[in-house]
Amino acid sequence: SSLEERRAARAARRRKQDENEGGEEQEETTSRRSRRRQQEDEEDSYSAPAEPAYDAEAENRRRQQQEEEEAAARAAEEEYNRQQEELRRQRQEEERQRREEEQRRQQEEEERLRLEREEQEREEEARRMAEEQKKKKKKGLGGLSPEKKKMLKKLIMQKAAEDLANEAKAKAEAKEKYINDLVPKFSTDGKDVAALQALCKDFHKRLASLEEDVYDWEAKIRKQDFEINELTLKVNDTKGKFVKPVLRKVNKTESKLDKIQRKEAKKSDFRDNLKSSREHEADKEGGEGENE
Q1: Does residue 6 form part of some domain?
Q2: Where is the composition biased (Low complexity)?
Q3: Number of domains in the chain
C-alpha cells in the first residue's frame, strides 16, 4: 500500500542520512533522529485511517475514468457504424444510378437501331419503287402484264419469307443441337455431396474449355479483320487513291431478293430468246416460200 511505500522511502532516506553524518555528532543526532522518528511514526499513525478514504476516492476516479473511456469507445463505435451505413447507402445509390444509366443507354441504343431499321426500310421501299418504275418504262419485259408482275413479286416475297423462316429455324435447331452435344443430360437425384462436387468440377472444366475456344475464335476473327483491312489498304495504295471503308449493315433479305430477281431475269431472257428464235425461223420459212 501507499503507507508502506512511504515508510520504506523514509527508511531509505534515514539510512542515507546516517551514512553522510559524521562520528562526533553521532550521539546528538541519534537522539534528534529518534525524536524525529517517533514524531513521524505518530504522524503516520494519525494519517493511517485516512488511507481508505484516499483509496475510495481513487477508485471512484478510476471507475469514472473507465466509464468515460467506455462511453467514448461506444461513441466511436456508433460513429464508425454510422459511417459504414452512410457508405453502404452511398454505394447503393451509385449502383442504382449506374443501373439507370445503363438502362437509359440501352433504350437509346434500341431507339437508334429502330430508327436505322425504319430508315433502311424506307430506302429499300424507295429503291423498289424506283426499280418498278424503271421496269414499267421498258416494253415487252417477259411479256407479263402489270397484274402478273405484281403477283409474281408477291409470290417471290412469300417464298423469300418462307426461306428466311426455314433458315432461322434450321439455325436455331443447329444451335440447340450443338448446345445439347456440349452439355449432356444429367440428373442430381440420389447423388451425395461428393458426386455433386465432381459434377460441378466437370461442368467447370467444360466451361473453361469453352471459354478458351471463345477466346481463340475471337482472336482469329480479329486477326482476319486486321488482314482484310491491310489488304484493303494495299489495294487502295495500288489504285493510287484512298477510299475510307464504309461500315454498313448488310440486309440479308435484300441480297436474297436480288438473287431471286436475277434468276427470274435469266428465265425471262431465255423465254425472250426462245420467242425471238421462233419468229426468226418463221420469217426464214416465209422468205423461202416466196422464193419458190
Answers
A1: yes
A2: 46-55
A3: 3
188 assigned to some structural domain: no
The residue segments making up the domain with residue 29 are 2-79
Instruction: Assess if residue 42 is contained within a domain.
Output: yes
Q: What is the structure's pLDDT at 53?
A: 45
Q: The C-alpha cell of 176 is what?
A: 440447340
Instruction: Specify the amino acid at residue 120.
Output: Q
pLDDT along the chain (292 residues), means of 10: 68 72 56 66 52 66 86 89 91 91 90 90 88 68 73 90 92 86 75 84 86 90 92 78 63 69 64 54 51 44
How many angstroms separate the CA atoms of 21 and 16, rounded?
9
| Long-range contacts formed by 99-104: CB under 8 A, 24+ apart | none
- Co-location of 234 and 266 in the same domain: no
Can you give the pLDDT at residue 159?
Answer: 92
C-alpha to C-alpha distances, 52 to 1, 45, 55, 63, 100, nearest whole angstrom: 10, 13, 5, 16, 71
CA angle 251, 253, 254 (to 5 degrees): 70
For residue 189, tell me if it sits in a domain.
no
The helix (H) or strand (E) run that includes residue 174 is: helix 146-182
- The model carries a pTM of 0.25
The distance of Cα 35 from the centroid of its chain, to the nearest Å, equals 93
SS3 content of the chain, % helix, strand, coil (to 5): 85, 0, 15
